[in-house]
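Changelog-linked ticket: magnesium ion example.
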Amino acid sequence: MNSKEPILKVDKLFKSFGDLKAVNGVNLEIYEGGIVSIIGPNGAGKSTLVNILTGFLFPDSGHIYFYGERIERKSIQYRVRKGLNRSFQINSLFNGMTVKENILLGLLYWELPLGRLLTNRLPKALEEKVLEIIESVNMTDKMNIEVDKLSHGEQRLIEITLSIVKPPKLLFLDEPTSGLSPDERNMIMDKIRSIAETGTTVVLIEHNMDVVFSLAKRIVVLNRGSVIADGEPSSIRGNEEVKKIYLGEDLTVA
Ligand code: ADP
Ligand code: MG
């Protein structure tokens, strides 16, 4: 297909919860490469939009095209296999299981038929792959610790790492830095940069403006379920409607 075609195209997407129009006629095109940020106040519909785009919710109406194929009624698994993946706003790791066990489960999703889960001795290649991933996030000394005993930043790092075990073409990160300390936030920002550098297109849902302005080359602003601005950071920063919504928040940072 033409390289100027968007990899993801969203056409007149609607989703209501009762009377509430959470996603209210969103049109959006995402092109290959780099980091696009979706921002907007709490309740703007960002997570609902991501849930619809990744298959966790079906829209009331509207179409989603991924590399030209209509996917709005396809399953989560179908979309993941096509190269569209996500991380969550809240922890989705298996608490009570160790770092190593969580990484293994993430990998098994790709590597083996489910029946092999019953095997208690791992094939050597799989064991090596698990250890390699653990080492890539510098957690070799922590691999036998239960994930819920780790810092929030470390948990977030594992989650994001699991979403790129098989590098997706398009990755949605839903508020990956929320609740993190400044140091942890920097670590996650480095991770996001490195993901984008390896060729995965990243859509970053983010509340922290420092993070948005230092990572994104394009910003989409959502308010009350609709896109109200879309452009380069400099144009978003100067946008009057955006300023009004973020009244009291400092849009001049970074
Ligand atoms: P954001 O991620 O931008 O903060 P959300 O997409 O989570 O916003 O929510 C958008 C609106 O939809 C909010 O008013 C929220 O309360 C509502 N909402 C989200 N999910 C549901 C649901 N499953 N049932 C009912 N209302 C929901
Ligand atoms: Mg949200």
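Closing comment: Example verified and attached. The radius of gyration is 19 Å. The first helix runs from residue 46 to 54.
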